[in-house]
Amino acid sequence: MIALEGVTKAFGEREVLKGIDLTVDEHQAVALIGASGSGKSTLLRCVDLLLGIDDGDIFLDGEVITDPSVDPIDVRRRLGFVFQAYNLFPHLNVIDNVTLGITRAHGLGRQEARDSARSMLARFGLEGREEESPSNLSGGQQQRVAIARAFATRPRAMLLDEVTSALDPELVGEVLRAVRDLKDEGVTMLIATHEMGFAREVADKVGFLHEGRLVEVGPPERVLEDPEDPNTQKFLRRLLEAGRA
Amino acid sequence: MAAEAARPDRRAERAAAKRRRDRRGIAIAAISTVVVLGGLVALVLTSPGWPDVRDTFFNATVFKESFPDVAEGFWLDIRIFIVVEILVLVLGLVVALIRATTLPALFPLRLLATVYADVFRGIPVVLLVYLVGFGVPALDPPEGLLTNQIVLGAAALTLSYGAYVSEVYRAGLRSVHPGQREAALAVGLTERQAMRHVVVPQAVRNVGPPLLNDFISLQKDVALIAIIGVTGEAFRIAQIQASTDFNYTPLLCAALLYLAVTIPLARLLDRWDRGRVR
Predict the structure, then answer these.
(1) Taking the model in full, what pTM does it have?
(2) Is the predicted ipTM greater than 0.85, yes or no?
């Protein structure tokens, strides 16, 4: 459903993505792993057209979305994005964070949007918190609001950018449960993550990014347990030593 | 074991020591206040010119006589202030938003907005009141708004404060984290919607205190329109009354009226600022 062909992206002189080829099939969850600065976040932002690419093409449902004639707003309305730092709207309460997009961008009526937001929040364990300010919520709850906000737009696919990296360790579990929940429902996902155990568990496919190149792609058991690429091996060994894998 | 037993005493001891410290602090503050303020008052009251100053600036009879007129003039000040403030808030935001856009089609507007902010922030308010107040009528426009001194004075204040406030808004727009715009786009909003529903509300909220600060400043500067001959204004009335009998008490009247508005505004600002830090 999502396909990248030779995607290249540079910030000034610095090439962050160097010819990425990757496909995410419908109902598939693909995890991107790699060191900080390897280009995972940039790749996700390029898919959501929050960043423009320099070369190559990105497809969504067979359509070239990186063509200059394509309206990026139209593409973003078909995708859900969850940020590492949640990026909730601090001036809106929890439910309005969810309804803003579905009313303004997706044309739902106010009542319909509120009902839908309410059930979406309940689904991620946030019933009773609708009227609260995001700042009163824990990091894990905020990130679940962010997931509800993205998923409420009924996206074709969810893009998750290190959604647990900003969380205290004890709050990681509840957010991963929310993502697992999406996976069980068959939601197509492209996930940048540091959680190897989680990648192994939910991902149908794991890609290892190293300095802007996708050096290894395959089923999680193979990439994570028996990697071929020396960079992947080194990366996983380091994680193992740090007790993170 | 000994330490355990000593515990309750230590607590009482600490509390007593703290009480002693607090009492001493209050005593020192009280004494130094009496000394400093008392000294200042004594200095003024014993100066050779004090009896004259008392009669010309603090004359109770004159105060009572002039107060109603000055207060009526002050009501005009307040009305001008409110109208100008609303215009300033709108003008400032429009200028800031124009300067924030990147649309090529808006380049000429962006240029104008930038020149406007630079020029009008750079001219002293008093000079601008003069220039507009005397310059526009000199063009010999038809009788009406353009020859009304109140309107011209208000226009000069609006132009000047609009430029200041546009910079305040600009700082506010910059203070909103870029991730907010990104998140708004990610849920499918257009750039304009992201601005309207996500960036601007947060920007305005972030600059509440500096905006209020400019309010206070503007409230005082309304008095400047007296210099272009607006007769009904508080400062002007006080000036006229003072010049008839060389008693300046009416000016004090006007000063007190200004303080009656600016001090509560300043306290409000303080509370707002404290609330934000918490």
Answers:
(1) 0.82
(2) yes
